[in-house]
Amino acid sequence: MNSKLSKISLPLKLTFLIFSMVLNCMGIVILQLSEAKITYEKLGFLESFKDLPIAFISLFAVNFISKIGTKNALILALTIVGICSCILPFVEVFWFYKLWFAIIGTCFAIGKICVFGIIRNNISEEKSLAKTMNSVEASFMIGIFVVNTGFGWLISSKYSEFWKFGFISISVLSAITILLFSKIKISEPLQKNDNGLISSLLNFVNKSVIIFLAVIFCIVFVEQSFNSWLPSFYKNHLKVNSFFALQASSFLALFSYIGRTITANIIQRFSLSRYFKTCLFLIIAVLFIILGIQFLGSDDSKTLLFLFPVIGLFLSPLYPVINSKMIALVDKKKINLFTSLIVIFSSLGSSVSSIIMALLFGNGLLNYYSLYILLAVSVLFMISLIYFHTVNKNI
Description:
With about 400 residues, this protein is mainly α. It has helices spanning about 1-25, 25-35, 40-70, 70-85, 95-120, 125-155, 170-180, 195-200, 205-225, 230-235, 240-265, 270-295, 305-315, 320-325, 335-360, 370-395. Helix 4 packs antiparallel against helix 5.
């Protein structure tokens, strides 16, 4: 089983890399369009056009994937992403960005369910699952780094007006990934359709699952506060140029990649719950240092440029670790449906976070950016304690 997974590891990682690039170009789009006098209120709701389709489509995507097969569904999603990325550079109107992100969100919902399903159907042991998920999701962080670095270079060059043509590279990468998938064989899980969608969902409704979904919501809520809005915080509050804002933000992704890679290699030595709590403690510690510098020292200290990325080391393992712990308990035949719930609450966390951040930026409250994130992490920590207590009690 593990040898089979090793053969499909590269296309799975490339899939997450591609979706990471198209989803996390939001920070670049916000940065560029805000300079084109698009208001932060409009840009904040732009995130919803990406996240709400993810939430809405996820449940219906389960039946769609079951009918055409995991591999075919994944190839279709990558094909649409490639085509859309080719079209974007040639369209100027703002409404198209809404449509573009809605299509990307829909494809991501299908893609993520397929990837999680493939991993779950090849690995059963909890810590091995955590190792694989951290490894695959680490490529998601590389996507953020690549998109910020690549577009940052393009925006700062003499060809800055052609920044949108960087999306052509995503189309090329999509074509390569599709070619790799077409050459490998993926075993499809047996699907039972004897229950309706609603009744199937009700089978998952219990205390531990509800609290787990709340944890997922909070993790993505915190992540999105960094991924889409950190470049604008750097530029507007710390007064650095667009190129440096994107480069500094890309280091958050780089540290996040390192965090997930390290986790993938050492997670089998530790308890998942203790590892998760330790990461949260360290995030809170770094945020207290940042707040100390802001409120006791200089509010716009350039030291903050280097401290924020460090948070990625400890924030990035949270999502795959908590997912792997719960997914390992789910029946393989129900993994697609359960993954759809994860995708839904992830997208809701992302959308709500971006709307709140838009209000924060729109009202000139950037002084409280770090305090706002600390509050969100504190809520995440408390809900996580409840979750682990509930799970350990039921074992």
